[in-house]
Every structure is written in C-alpha cells, then in structure tokens.
Amino acid sequence: MSQVAEIEPNTVTREDVLARAEELLPVVAERSEKASEQRRLPEDNVRDFLDAGLFKILQPKRVGGYELDFGMLVDTGAMISRACASSGWNVSNLASHHWMLGMWPKEAQDEVWGKNGETADTLICASVIFPAGRAKRVDGGYILNGRWPFCSGIDPSEWNMLGGMVEEDADHPEKEARLFLMRKSEHEVIDTWFTSGLKGTGSKDAVAEDIFIPEHMTVSANDVKGGATPGSDVNPGALYKVPVIAPFPYVLSGTPLGIAEGVYQNYIDGMKARTANYTGARISELQNIQIKVAEAGAAIDAARLMMRADCELSMQIAERNEVPDIETKAKFRRNGAFTATLCVEAVNKLYQASGGGGIYTRNPLARAFSDIHAARAHIAFSMDVAGTTFGKIAMGLGSDNAVL
C-alpha cells in the first residue's frame, strides 16, 4: 500500500480514515478476483487495512483506537465496497466488533486487547445469532454448545463473538440471550462458504462443543440495548451507549451502498461514449437510459442520506445519555432494510440498462449484481422482518423482537 502519514491515534479524524481508505481502492480492486477465488479476505488486504487503521474506527481511544462516530461503519464500508464488496463487508463487520467489545467487562477487553492495548490489532469475528447457541449456567460462567453460520472474516480473526440462549434454571425462570467471547482456537471452523455472491467474505461456520466461557467473557443482550453497559466505567463515551441490535443494519449497509455507488459511477463513465451494437445510436442519448440513471442516482442518494441521518440520531440520543424508545429502535431496523433495498433497486435498474454486456463475468457489474443480492439476503435487510416489527409497534401491538 502507499505510505500514509503517521497521525497520533487520538487526533485521527473521519476525513483521515476515509482518505486512507480511498487511497487503497486501486489495490483492493486489483485483488477483488483473488478474494473471490480464495473465498476469504486476502492477507494483503488484512495488512493494508490494519496499516491504514480501518479496523480501529470505533475502537476505544484508551487502547489506541479512534473512537469515531457510529456512522463511520457506513462510510468506511461503502468506500471499500466500491472496489471490493467482500472486503468492505469484512472491514465494517470486523471494526464493529471492537465497538461491541468496548461494552463488555474490562476483564474481557484486557484479555483481547491487553491492559494497555498491546494486542489492540487483534481481530474479532462474530455471529450474533442467538438461537444458534445453547448455554447453561455453571459455577463461574457457562457451558456453550452450538453451530453458528456466517462468521464473516473468521480466517484472519483470533477471537469469535457468538450469540446464544441460556437455559432456564431454578433462579432464572426464562431463557436469556447472551453474547459469548472465545478464542477461535477453542472451537471448530467448518468451511461452508461456497456462494454466488460476497464470495470473499469467508463467512464460515463455527462449532462449539461443551466450551466453558468465564462469566466476564459474556455479556447479556439486555445490557447492550442502549445506555450504560458493563464497559462504561472504562469507556464512558457516547459511542458505547448506542444500542447494538437496534441500528445493527448500519453495521453492514455500507456494503450495498458502496456497491451501488460504484456501479453508478462505472455505468456513467462507461456509457458516455458507448454506442448500441445494432443501431449505432449513442447510449447516452437514449431517453430511457437517462431516466434509469436519474432513478438509480436518486435512490442511492436517498439511501445514503437516510443511513447517515439514523446513525447521527443514534449518536445524538447516546450523547444525551438517553436510550431510544422502542419505536425509534424499530425505525432504525426498518430504515436499514429499506435503504439496502433502495441500493439493490438502483443496481437492478443499471444492470437491466446494460443490455447483453452486463452478463459477462469480465464486467464488474456482473459481480456487483451477485454481491448486492447476496448482501440483501442478510436478515438485517429483510423488509418483511423489519417491516413487521415496525408495523406492530407503530400500531400498538408490541414488539416481536425480544432483543431489540
């Protein structure tokens, strides 16, 4: 990668990070095919992203992170996804787990990052699918079993953050959703990642059998719904009071946004001088093409504005030391799914307007089309799920999402 200016971690700005990310786009684009072939984040990309500090955007300053605003997940993920969607997906995903760990007990943070940030570059993957794990309380912690799909970025990660449901017992009459943190070496990795899109994310399965997890290496989902957390004593900033689950779509939505922005720019650049094969007409002069470009551009702009507005609102609420009400939380989920849908629709319009040229694998549009539909398959982007939750709450029927 090109050399980036050395800046003290506590003075790094969002502009610094995005400039570093933009500088990497040419080499990331060159390696996009390599990422797909290897079905994981290339090691060269890992090194470049570490050197550029892209994984540190939401990490606490006290361990050398930048502790920037929550919306940086969208902006950084979108920037990298213009060149390689799989890499952008991994950047925002892995960066978000440093943010989440900042809410855990200090003992867990020290074990992962070191007491003075000695191992702060360690990467953490995750699968926040609570029903996939089963845990029971034992003296000093929990025994965890389960199989978790979609552990994006698991190959370069040393730790894994996994969701699970804790069984009822005499003192706890209801199941409890918790997150569990363990070294990757403690569980099995199953290579299931053979997909049509986002091939380079390496989102493989993790399998745990009777793994003991100490109490301090877990956190209850109820403790990260907004406001003070077990990590607040050492990380009191507003960033670590933003709910984990409510705005979760924005951990990932930079990827569909970046894909759509990249496709739009490439389409505009490629069509300005192109002529139709059969008629010889200039493509740019066709009214139907002009309309599709306008509609796609409007959808992308609207998506970015809505994503950023929700991320800024989540920070503003946290800065007031407040917790979003349940309707606002459901709105974050709704808008996250809706904005991803806008990005998909924009890419679909431009794909359809590309004619026969769009079907060739040499055309970046073909990969972008597969990648954005793979991204849209994530449950966080399902309007059926998010819309139902929001609609129920809006009409006074209560929430159907227990961890919201």
Short description:
This protein is an alpha+beta fold and 404 residues long. It contains twelve helices and eight strands.
Overview of the structural elements:
Residues 1-5 have low confidence and may be disordered. The longest helix is centred in the C-terminal third of the chain and has 33 residues, at 287-319. A hairpin with a 2-residue loop joins strand 2 and strand 3. 44% of the residues lie in helices and 13% in strands. The protein has 404 residues and is an alpha+beta fold. Strands 1, 2, 3, 4, 5, 6, 7 and 8 form an eight-stranded mixed sheet that branches. Helix 1 (14-30) packs antiparallel against helix 3 (43-52), helix 1 (14-30) packs parallel to helix 4 and helix 10 (326-352) packs antiparallel against helix 11. The chain contains twelve helices and eight strands. The chain has three domains: 9-113, Orthogonal Bundle (Butyryl-Coa Dehydrogenase, subunit A, domain 1); 124-222, Butyryl-CoA Dehydrogenase, subunit A, domain 2, CATH 2.40.110.10; 249-394, Butyryl-CoA Dehydrogenase, subunit A, domain 3.
